[in-house]
Design goal:
Layout lengths: L12 H9 L49 H5 L13 H6 L4 H24 L4 E2 L9 E2 L5 H24 L7 H16 L11 H18 L2 H27 L7 H14 L30
Antiparallel strand pairs: 1-2
Helix pairs in contact: 1-9, 4-8, 5-8, 7-8
Cofactor: Zn(2+)
GO biological process, one term: fatty acid biosynthetic process
Subcellular location: Endoplasmic reticulum membrane
Amino acid sequence: MGSQEVGLSPKPFLLCFFLQTCPKTPNSPTSDASGPVMSGKPRLASVNVEKDLVDWGKPLLWQVGHLREKYNEWVHQPVDRPIRLFQSDIMESFSKTTWYIVCLVWLPVIFFLGWNCYTTLAQGKTQLFSSFTSAYAIPVHKSWFPLLCLLGIFIWSLLEYLIHRFLFHMNPASKYYLITLHFLLHGQHHKSPFDSSRLVFPPVPASLLFFFFYFLAPVVFPREFGLSILCGGIIGYVIYDMMHYYLHYGSPKEGTYLHGLKIYHIKHHFEHQKAGFGISSRFWDRPFHTLIPEENEKSD
């Protein structure tokens, strides 16, 4: 089996942009140890299929756990090649998706759920605290619906941060199953940040989370009140997924908000994996003190 090098193809403008705006360090995954920058043409980490720590000819999911203490360094040496996780074609298809599938699946859900909640609230029968006492029950009118959606978007922004920081960037140590879980959830994305089929959340696992919150919301709140918040949460999620895809493949105009977020996310991938957990916003990085260092002296 001959060695194979995977360089930077024309599609990943992201890394070219990163190398023009961020200083390289000797220990950086994009240092010349894995591919020198020659004539302004940067390269991602090369893959020698004979010497690499995993067998790229086989699904990676059940291999990465065996890397143990070498996993963290390996997973943060990004390559420009697709990743296969499962042997089963069915399981593999469930683990990836294209960006527009997110819109095709979740926009109808948003419209249907939103319309149902709005028309039900318009009947004037929904009340807060009515299960405790009718004396202090607060009627919830249809005018509350947009505010509840905004609340849902806000709650999602916090969940986005917490999930990214504490679940996606958990420390798996040298434990086989934690490493496997980490790679399944997020490590694969850091290993192959330009795999377009793995930049958004596949609809099958996303549906499991949706049904969990769909049945939880009416338990915590009056049904339409809780589902209105959930509707906003789904809107926030779709915005997040589309923005994440755009930050990897889009070319926002210099000086714009999205341009700043793109630089920020690039630095998270290639320089500061333990900071910069906000994707659609840097808002929560501030109170949780996880702004990327040089961003501490800047404002949005």
